[in-house]
Amino acid sequence: MNFVIIGGDAAGMSAASRARRMYPDLAITVLEQSFDVSYSACSMPYNIADPDTPIDSLVVRTAQEFIDKQQINLLTGHKVTAIHRDTRQVSGKTADNEPFCFHYDKLLIATGARPTLPDLPGNELLMPLKQLEHGRQIKDAIQKRGVQKAAILGMGYIALEMCEALTDLDIQVSMVKPGSRFLPWLPRDMAQIVQDELIRKKIALHMGTDVQHIATADTGGVRMVCDTMILDADMVLGATGVAPCSDLAKDAGLAIGVSESISVDPYLRTSDPDIFAAGDCGDAFHVVTNQKVWIPLALRANRAGWAVADNLFAENTLLQGVAGTAVFKVFDLAVARSGLTVHQAKEAGFDPVENLIQSLSRAKWQPGVAKIYVNMVGDRKTGKLLGAQAVGADGVAHRINAVAVALHAGMSVADFIQTDLAYAPPFGPTWDPFLTAAIQLNKKL
Amino acid sequence: MNFVIIGGDAAGMSAASRARRMYPDLAITVLEQSFDVSYSACSMPYNIADPDTPIDSLVVRTAQEFIDKQQINLLTGHKVTAIHRDTRQVSGKTADNEPFCFHYDKLLIATGARPTLPDLPGNELLMPLKQLEHGRQIKDAIQKRGVQKAAILGMGYIALEMCEALTDLDIQVSMVKPGSRFLPWLPRDMAQIVQDELIRKKIALHMGTDVQHIATADTGGVRMVCDTMILDADMVLGATGVAPCSDLAKDAGLAIGVSESISVDPYLRTSDPDIFAAGDCGDAFHVVTNQKVWIPLALRANRAGWAVADNLFAENTLLQGVAGTAVFKVFDLAVARSGLTVHQAKEAGFDPVENLIQSLSRAKWQPGVAKIYVNMVGDRKTGKLLGAQAVGADGVAHRINAVAVALHAGMSVADFIQTDLAYAPPFGPTWDPFLTAAIQLNKKL
């Protein structure tokens, strides 16, 4: 039996490793177009901020280790260009332009996501950050060009993590986006807190700014020509979002779902039961709406990869879905979310109410205490907890997990109020800020 | 209508304040035997560690503020000695030995808990820490006696918090307990981690040591004569546990429950429907076992106080119960728990399995990363998650809340594995340590 995996990143390698543990005799082939597998992509901004640690230290396991220790036929530099469902084959070309073709009994598409750069003259000058090779290029550029000024197109969480990384390197950062709202998925008052933090760190934020074209500047740097200004920098990053790599699946006639991601069932099967999809290329059910969503996140990719191995030959692991829980750090603040924003809740047909509270991360006399802001969303019709967002300098990241678990359990806001959360003065006020948020929200429901 | 409350601490004052907001015309009388109301008892160790901040700064609101701003008839120095259910009266004596008597329509017993000191000759020399007055006495003693050496009888969480506080003041601390196990509710390997931390901080731990009597030493300090040694100190704290103050209720013929606490229903009513009990004097249902437990914790006291106000004249707020979630800090470590230990689970009739894992608090390259230990308990028969305990220097306190919420929701270990917890390298590994714990435990179930 041949198990073929397209893509050697989180989902692909998780599936390969677990399949090997479960089925010692299975022939496992992984086809990876780049030359990097199994690295911590989310750690790239932090590595870039540290000139003394090579980016290759983010590699968790090398291709050769997978080959030697797990007998996985891992082929890098192998770009798959077509899936032939009639003959159960995948074909493509190597980096040396040699054609290849593999037969599969079970296939996993784990092609991940790709950066979406705006369609602009000169957009090839924008440096994205998605694969390890991108990180390598950015890190090289910083050193070789002696970057002192950088521009970032985009203000999402990758853009903000990179903004912090570059600032740590004493690089002056300007951020540009065409839209007018900063972190538009946060309530305005919360987004403002994050925006204030950036301004305090001397970041220039150019919102409502359309880039018209990008060109190499006379100085050797990059010139971004916008509708209202010209911005010269030594380097311009493009962090304007990602899209699922679903072309192979689409060309093979597999069902495509939300945001052009590959549609999968709770067992990670595509519309062809012998073909699975996992990781950033596939969709998922949302535990709050029970509707399909495309939310590319690392934990889900790992979990889905494992589940594919479990489900290769039987329905063993049914994935319940995602809550869209995420957190990122930007300078001294953490920004976290789980579940729906009030806008998403409206779109999903709920009658949502949100309420923003301010509390403290610890008892007020404790060292390290900081303000913490929690916005909670509930459904007026059913009383159900729908989601929460939080911002603060202390105690935000793990507190959001209480909400994530509550969303999986389908709890009401009133039920959440009753949860017995931990209290000690060094770690929180008597009423955890998320309990206070729930109590205040419940009054509005 | 007269609402009379016995006890002006967390539960009593929460009930009084909320009842005032709900019922502007209700006559509310609070009878408090001490002269302190509404203070942060849990913050006392941290205040004691700080000689520059008076202990009275822990007072959240003074008696006069309750009287002036909320028209609550708050009487301090009023010790209730009897409840007369036939005539609906409470009677007692003031600090000036004046008798008093009040009629009630609804009564709340919020008498809290009292320190239980061992029955030893000289035990009046042991200084407990429960009420603000105790904190005042300890703080005064440290200053006036110029304490350099202190002994603590007991090794529970109050003892450990005080050990840290005294060490911060450069006081040399010895701890004594008759039992042989340190933190016996933790798995041995976890307890050892905490014990190692204390030894590293130069704390002397005398376990298996029976105290025979305590006396004033010739030097003016205190001498603790034990079976195997004599320990001289400038001050000896007694932190050997607490017991519910339920004598008034018992004498009035109300039902008494587990650990001699006052038995209440989910609406906080005692066996007399016009008499409520809330706070550390009353029992609660445990969300995992659905059996009665006595777990005195501050959040529950506040929550129960509010619920009493809600339920004075109608069944408005049903409390679901407690998960026994708690956390404390001792030097660089946090120790947290929620739900049942494997021993408690066995006693409750489960067929429990536990598993201890070691993970990291953040991604391995991140500053601040520390080892984190999680022990998780599940039921072999049903697969149900029963509880967890965790120890570590980073990221322990709020992570336990995910387990607390899962216990309220009655989740299985397999369900918990699926929860979509937040991930970013500065805050955790891709698989949160509690997910790793659940995955490993599930293999044993």
Written description of the protein model:
The structure is a homodimer. Chain A folds into 3 domains: about 1-35 and about 60-115 and about 240-310, FAD/NAD(P)-binding domain (3-Layer(bba) Sandwich); about 125-240, FAD/NAD(P)-binding domain (3-Layer(bba) Sandwich); about 325-445, 3-Layer(bba) Sandwich (FAD/NAD(P)-binding domain), CATH 3.50.50. In chain A, a hairpin with a 6-residue loop joins β18 (about 285) and β19 (about 290-295). Chain A is globular, with a radius of gyration of 23 Å. Chain A starts with a strand and ends with a helix. Chain A is an alpha/beta fold. In chain A, about 25% of the residues lie in helices and about 25% in strands. The mean pLDDT of chain A is about 95. Chains A and B meet through α8, β20, β21 and α10 of A and α8, β20, β21 and α10 of B.
What layout of secondary structure does this protein have?
2 copies of one chain form a homodimer.
Chain A: E1 2-6, H1 10-22, E2 27-32, H2 44-48, H3 63-70, E3 73-76, E4 78-84, E5 89-94, E6 99-103, E7 106-109, E8 113-115, H4 132-145, E9 149-153, H5 157-168, E10 172-176, H6 188-200, E11 204-206, E12 211-216, E13 222-226, E14 230-233, E15 235-238, E16 242-244, H7 247-251, E17 275-277, E18 284-285, E19 292-293, H8 298-311, E20 326-330, E21 333-339, H9 342-347, E22 352-360, E23 371-379, E24 385-392, H10 400-408, H11 413-417, H12 433-444
Parallel strand pairs in A: 1-2, 1-7, 2-3, 7-17, 9-10, 9-15, 10-11
Antiparallel strand pairs in A: 4-5, 5-6, 8-16, 12-13, 13-14, 18-19, 20-21, 21-24, 22-23, 23-24
Helix pairs in contact in A: 1-8
